[in-house]
Amino acid sequence: DTAVSQTPKYLVTQMGNDKSIKCEQNLGHDTMYWYKQDSKKFLKIMFSYNNKELIINETVPNRFSPKSPDKAHLNLHINSLELGDSAVYFCASSHRLAGGGDTQYFGPGTRLTVL
Amino acid sequence: DQQVKQNSPSLSVQEGRISILNCDYTNSMFDYFLWYKKYPAEGPTFLISISSIKDKNEDGRFTVFLNKSAKHLSLHIVPSQPGDSAVYFCAASEGQAGTALIFGKGTTLSVSS
């Protein structure tokens, strides 16, 4: 069973379109995240949700909107796609361990290409 | 400004030898450190972690060492195997629930047989 899954794995679309990426985790975690890996290979946080509540929102254009219908799902909607949005997007989830530390588990990634 | 740095983009090691991957950080508020392994076209896979209250954590062939005064951590893989060939990311966080992981740029490890 896949712990953190994302769909689609590949997404090719035209500039100006609106698209969504779905993420689901079956680990029973209460916190979910979206990261972006850009062309320079840096993985950077975009959003974090805890129990369906937004807790991190980095400096991301408001064309990007996360939506969490329940604890197990965190979807990413992107409006008016631009060339610079081309990247690999990773979903992750975690559960706070007693004593500290928050190990995050990642999905396989969605490679978005904007033409 | 990079808070987590992996200054070696690549490392080549022979099978059976030790691989040592290094990571430096600048933020003294970091108190939880992780190593992830990543194969092409897959997501990062959690490997091992260490809390700032420890200086060493071991899990099988993998050991992470933390030197807080130097703001440095390293991952030792002994013995190295060809299947260990991947990109290794160092990450750090301030340990609060839901805190973002701050990643280094990664080191590509190649283990030859």
Q: How is this structure best described in words?
A:
The complex is a heterodimer of chains A (115) and B (113). By secondary structure, chain A is an all-beta fold. Chain A has strands at 4-7, 10-13, 19-25, 31-37, 43-50, 53-57, 64-70, 73-78, 87-94, 104-106, 110-114. In chain A, strand 7 and strand 8 (73-78) form a beta hairpin. The termini of chain A are far apart. With 113 residues, chain B is mainly β. In chain B, strands 2, 4, 5, 9, 10 and 11 form a 6-stranded mixed β-sheet that branches. A 5-stranded antiparallel β-sheet of chain B has the order 1-3-8-7-6, with no helix packed on it. Chain B is built from no helices and 11 strands. The interface between A and B is medium-sized, with 31 and 25 residues.
What are the SSEs and their pairings?
The complex is a heterodimer of chains A (115) and B (113).
Chain A: E1 4-7, E2 10-13, E3 19-25, E4 31-37, E5 43-50, E6 53-57, E7 64-70, E8 73-78, E9 87-94, E10 104-106, E11 110-114
Parallel strand pairs in A: 2-11
Antiparallel strand pairs in A: 1-3, 3-8, 4-5, 4-9, 5-6, 7-8, 9-10, 9-11
Chain B: E1 4-5, E2 10-14, E3 19-25, E4 32-38, E5 45-51, E6 56-59, E7 62-67, E8 72-77, E9 86-93, E10 102-103, E11 107-112
Parallel strand pairs in B: 2-11
Antiparallel strand pairs in B: 1-3, 3-8, 4-5, 4-9, 6-7, 7-8, 9-10, 9-11
Characteristics of this structure?
heterodimer, A: 115 residues, mainly beta, globular, B: 113 residues, six-stranded mixed beta sheet, five-stranded antiparallel beta sheet, 11 strands
Quick synopsis:
Chain A has 115 residues and is an all-beta fold.
Q: Can you write the helix and strand succession of chain A as a string? A: EEEEEEEEEEE
The largest β sheet of chain B comes out as: 6 strands, mixed
Distance between the amino and carboxyl termini of chain B: 38 Å
Mean pLDDT reading of chain B: 94
Count of helices of chain A?
0
Regions with little confidence, pLDDT below 50 for 5+ residues of chain B? none
Flag low-confidence runs of chain A: none
Query: DSSP helix count of chain B?
Result: 0
Number of strands of chain A: 11
Oligomeric category: heterodimer
